[in-house]
Give the backbone structure.
Amino acid sequence: MRRRPFRLLPALLACLILALAGCSGGKHSAARPSGTRGHGMATITVSQLPPEARHTLQLIAAGGPFPYPKDGVVFGNYENALPRERRGYYHEYTVPTPGARDRGARRIVTGAGHETYYTDDHYRTFKEVTGR
């Protein structure tokens, strides 16, 4: 009888990959920190947003008018802080900061899939807005 030592190799590799994927605790892991959604990002409810952010959400829902010329422009997600999507998927809107002489650091970013994110530190960190 002729030996075929590599005959089971594809099946063994598939089992090994499945076993490692199940033990990785990656983004599909069942345990998530509280206050986070499926992708591990912190969340914030609309009622927890500052009043200026709630007003910006109302303007977005109404389609404007927006107080800043850059409101509604494409957000490039160059920081990769949001889930990766095609260019043009995200748009950003200014959340006015009382006392600031410029647009300030606060923004609402919306996605084409109707998701909404809030940052108060000029894109360093984001929270997904829930409860709309």
